[in-house]
Amino acid sequence: MGAARQRSGGARRAGHKPCVLIVEDDPDFRGQLGEYFDYLGWDRRLARDARAAAAAFSVADPDLILCDVMLPGLDGFETIRHLRGLPGGEEIPVVLMSASWRDPIGFEARLRSVGAVEFLRKPLSIPELGRRLQVILDLDASRRAEARSTRSGQFRNSVVDESLGDCAHGPTAGPYNVLGAAEIVLQIFDQARTGILELTHGSTTRDLVFRDGLLLGADSDQPRESASAALLAVGCVDPSAIPRLLAAHRDTGIRISELAVKRGLCRPGDIAPAIRHQVTSVLHAAVRAAGHYQFAEGEQEPPTAGILRANPVDLLDEVLRSPPGLFAGLPTATRLLPGPWFGESRGPRALPADSGWVVEAARRRLTVGEALGANAAKRAPMLWMLMRLGAVVGDPSGP
């Protein structure tokens, strides 16, 4: 075996430009991945099936392989076994991905049989994928086996999670990209966590307050996302009262919504629409930005806690509908199937009332394209979220 093929894991060579071999049969998604790794400054080789992957492998000398499970001809597992048998293929880290998810125990055994470092479910965040692959490249070979199955059908490496601040109990701190804030919110919801999520974008700071995964309130240093703007937007208080409320807030530090109630300007129940409006405004801005997040666990609730207990899926469904191209990468030919928590109707993780069309699509094994129909711009956010949460999964193998 030549020196270029001798890999034992660990840090990359100084000045070395990493190379990833991407095996993906969907031309659109394959192209998106290629463009992103171009942006990262990686060398990349693209292949649509096992034969093309072997040809690319023989000339590319890749540092890492990213492979879809559902491929034409040999599936992803057989493709990796074939590549493992080529000179230099034994130790290369492999990440598998798919919209298909079955028995987690059997699936995990297959992943371990080909030496996969991780398995990630589609649809996935390409920037998040990039973050994970950069950490995996620097892992010592002995740490690559530290993966575990999750309830949502992932097979994730605990060392990578710790490096990125994504510990087993959920997100703690780290960078996020466009749509990344939405994924963090969904994870907090899925795990029914309590605390404050701080999202920093440049000089802007936004807070989202959770109890048991549900949203109680929000805060922002942006005037258009402030409590006073929300009170005015829903007509909760007279505009002439806002300057006095702002002055009292500066003097006392008490939240404006609480001051409005204490001063008899509105009843507690009357400000629920204002709180919802502010949370929605903060979410709308946060999911379209990139920055740094930090989650502080614990009962750090606003004084108005209990007035609003909103399902984040419902609110995100409102704010993610524009621009329409935000979810252009959904695999339209993939058939939908019931997922790990399909049909749950109790507790914080209950499916939203208006998600019945997703449930029906999974029961009928419709494709993503058939489920979205002519209302793709309106329906895509809900489908994306429920696939991320594991309420429905995809089966690219067809009917």
Tell me what the structure shows.
- With 399 residues, this protein is of the alpha/beta class.
- It folds into 3 domains: 3-168, Rossmann fold (3-Layer(aba) Sandwich); 197-309, no CATH class; 324-395.
- It is built from 15 helices and 16 strands.
- The chain has helices at residues 27-40, 50-60, 76-84, 104-113, 126-137, 158-164, 180-190, 227-233, 242-252, 256-262, 272-286, 312-319, 356-363, 368-372, 376-389; strands spanning 19-23, 43-47, 64-68, 94-98, 116-121, 147-149, 155-157, 166-167, 170-171, 173-176, 195-201, 204-211, 214-220, 291-297, 335-338, 392-395.
- The strands form 5 sheets. It has a 5-stranded parallel beta sheet, with helices on both faces.
- A hairpin with a 2-residue loop joins strand 8 (166-167) and strand 9 (170-171).
- Helix 5 packs across helix 6, helix 8 (227-233) crosses helix 11 and helix 12 packs antiparallel against helix 15 (376-389).
- The longest helix has 15 residues, at 272-286.
- It is elongated.
- The two termini are 44 Å apart.
